[in-house]
């Protein structure tokens, strides 16, 4: 009884518990502080995968591997910011790590809407990812994030969708119009899915194309990154105005330049899949005014010099990750 009371008191005092968690082999688009990619997890004997918006300290997720892990979950003390989790997670042990062969084709791949009811769409504001195992289609419908369940029909490559559900944010008139048209097009419908090279078509049973998506190539992705200017909007989960801090890519010369909010920087970069490595990054030597400006510059330069940096593009943000933690987020600026 005495031992039990000490264990119980310790658990209450520190707000800690050990949890067994399963981590799926791929990430999916989700909405955190801004559009990003999330791990998919299950606890113990849960049937359904769920988005995991947090960071697990000490856990280095590698795409293409399914994990069974033990984590320690600790309740945060004091006042927790509104956009932060109530808990912190720390890896205790990896029970198993199993390589999962990814099925090529349309699954677990971000696809950008290019055609809707015969009309061309080129604003990049609507995209989907099909999760075969969960039987869901998720993404962004023009304004809001959404999720819709589907079932396979008897005929090959045919599905039936349910009604979509998602966030309820208000956007500009054009985005809201796209959202309504997209939602109506995908709601409670039977589709035949046809893939032609990097195009994926959702046809009705009369063989008319209702929705068409494009799977971006690496060249297309970097072309999008290169043509835009990217302003720092979040650093280590703190979203604020970081002044002049920005990053810009010259994809032809494989060069990068920008500003830390204090000094200019420049260098070169290499990329492969979702990894990016910056080389020969040098900054000017102007003294930064204030402790915060110095800290911001040190963090940015440190991440740019880290060789394990991963990136993705979600809607209109360019996100950089380290050990599966979102460390820098840049938004498109004119």
Can you walk me through this structure?
- The chain has 334 residues and is of the alpha+beta class.
- It has helices at 2-14, 173-186, 218-227, 291-304; strands at residues 16-23, 28-31, 35-43, 50-52, 56-57, 65-75, 87-99, 111-116, 119-120, 126-131, 136-141, 145-152, 158-161, 165-166, 190-196, 199-203, 209-214, 229-235, 238-239, 246-250, 255-259, 264-272, 275-283, 310-314, 317-322, 325-333.
- The chain has three domains: 2-99, no CATH class; 111-214, Beta Barrel (Lipocalin), CATH 2.40.128; 218-333, Lipocalin (Beta Barrel).
- Helices cover 15% and strands 48% of the residues.
- Strand 11 and strand 12 form a beta hairpin.
- The longest helix has 14 residues, at 173-186.
- The radius of gyration is 22 Å and the shape is globular.
Mean pLDDT: 87
Give me the count of strands.
26
Q: Which CATH C-level class of the largest domain is it?
A: Mainly Beta
Helix content: 10-25%
Radius of gyration: 22 Å
Structure at a glance:
The chain is an alpha+beta fold and 334 residues long.
What's the SSE blueprint?
Layout: H1 2-14, E1 16-23, E2 28-31, E3 35-43, E4 50-52, E5 56-57, E6 65-75, E7 87-99, E8 111-116, E9 119-120, E10 126-131, E11 136-141, E12 145-152, E13 158-161, E14 165-166, H2 173-186, E15 190-196, E16 199-203, E17 209-214, H3 218-227, E18 229-235, E19 238-239, E20 246-250, E21 255-259, E22 264-272, E23 275-283, H4 291-304, E24 310-314, E25 317-322, E26 325-333
Parallel strand pairs: 5-7
Antiparallel strand pairs: 1-3, 1-6, 2-3, 3-4, 6-7, 8-9, 8-10, 8-17, 10-11, 11-12, 12-13, 12-14, 13-15, 15-16, 16-17, 18-19, 18-20, 18-26, 20-21, 21-22, 22-23, 24-25, 25-26
């Amino acid at each position: 009884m005495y031992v039990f009371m000490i264990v119980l008191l310790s658990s209450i005092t520190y707000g800690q518990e050990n949890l067994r968690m399963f981590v799926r082999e791929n990430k999916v688009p989700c909405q955190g502080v801004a559009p990003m990619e999330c791990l998919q997890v299950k606890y113990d004997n849960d049937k359904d995968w769920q988005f995991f918006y947090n960071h697990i300290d000490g856990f280095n997720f590698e795409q293409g591997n399914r994990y069974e892990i033990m984590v320690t979950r600790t309740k945060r003390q004091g006042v927790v910011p509104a956009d932060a989790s109530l808990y912190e997670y720390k890896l205790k042990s990896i029970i198993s790590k199993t390589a999962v062969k990814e099925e090529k084709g349309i699954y677990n791949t971000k696809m950008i809407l290019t055609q809707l009811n015969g009309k061309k769409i080129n604003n990049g504001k609507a995209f989907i990812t099909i999760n075969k195992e969960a039987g869901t289609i998720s993404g962004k419908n023009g304004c809001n994030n959404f999720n819709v369940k589907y079932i396979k029909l008897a005929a090959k490559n045919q599905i039936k969708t349910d009604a979509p559900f998602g966030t309820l944010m208000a956007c500009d008139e054009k985005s809201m119009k796209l959202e309504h048209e997209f939602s109506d097009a995908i709601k409670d419908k039977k589709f035949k899915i046809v893939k032609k090279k990097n195009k994926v078509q959702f046809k009705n049973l009369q063989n008319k194309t209702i929705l068409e998506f494009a799977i971006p190539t690496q060249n297309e992705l970097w072309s999008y990154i290169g043509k835009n200017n990217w302003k720092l909007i979040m650093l280590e989960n703190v979203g604020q105005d970081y002044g002049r801090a920005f990053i810009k890519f010259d994809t032809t010369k494989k060069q990068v330049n920008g500003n830390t909010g204090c000094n200019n920087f420049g260098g070169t970069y290499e990329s492969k899949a979702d990894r990016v490595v910056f080389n020969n990054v040098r900054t000017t030597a102007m003294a930064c005014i204030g402790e915060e400006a110095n800290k911001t510059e040190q963090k940015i330069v440190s991440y740019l010099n880290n060789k394990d940096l991963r990136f993705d593009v979600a809607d209109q943000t360019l996100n950089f990750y380290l050990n599966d933690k979102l460390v820098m987020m840049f938004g498109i600026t004119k």
